Amino acid sequence: MNKKEVRLRRARKTRAKIAELKSVRLTVFRTNSHIYAQVIDGSGSRVLAAASTVEADVRSQLPNGGNKQAAQVVGKLIAERAKAAGVEAVAFDRAGFQYHGRVKALAEAAREGGLKF
């Protein structure tokens, strides 16, 4: 198994538990250049809010989309958009990524923005 398959295997366990609870989830995906966050409803079929470093308004604020500063900006933005969509509490789905670095920075910024998890 390669690195990606191992990560997805870890993610499957978390997603199964979140799906069982039917809770709204905040999912994170990261690449070397960008970080993405989505708030997905309990059924897993609708995206309620999304934010990423690919967006023009976010990209204009940052020189680089692949660092902790960018993750903090995306975390605050996803919290604002989720609250605007009426979401207060979420389950954090780190998609098998370690809770460290950019993933941790995004999560902490989302908490500061008012999301509860």
Short description:
This protein has 117 residues and is of the alpha+beta class. Helix content is 45%, strand content 18%. It is globular, with a radius of gyration of 14 Å.
Can you walk through the features of this model?
This protein has 117 residues and is an alpha+beta fold. It has a single domain, classed as Nucleotidyltransferase, domain 5 (2-Layer Sandwich), CATH 3.30.420.100. Helices cover 45% and strands 18% of the residues. It contains 4 helices and 4 strands, in the order αβββααβα. Strands 3-2-1-4 form a 4-stranded mixed sheet. A hairpin with a 6-residue loop joins strand 2 (35-40) and strand 3 (47-52). The mean pLDDT is 96.
Q: Uncertain runs with pLDDT below 50, 5 residues or more?
A: none
Q: What separation lies between the terminal Cα atoms?
A: 31 Å
In CATH terms, what is the fold-level topology?
A: Nucleotidyltransferase, domain 5
Instruction: Provide the number of structural domains.
Output: 1
What's the CATH class label? Alpha Beta
Report the C-alpha radius of gyration, rounded.
14 Å
Strand order of the largest sheet: 3-2-1-4
| Average of per-residue pLDDT values | 96
Proportion in helices = 40-55%
Q: What's the number of helices?
A: 4
Major beta-sheet overview: 4 strands, mixed
- Dominant shape: globular
Q: Which band does the percent of strand residues land in? A: 15-25%
The ordered string of helix (H) and strand (E) elements is HEEEHHEH
How many β strands by DSSP? 4
Oligomer: single chain
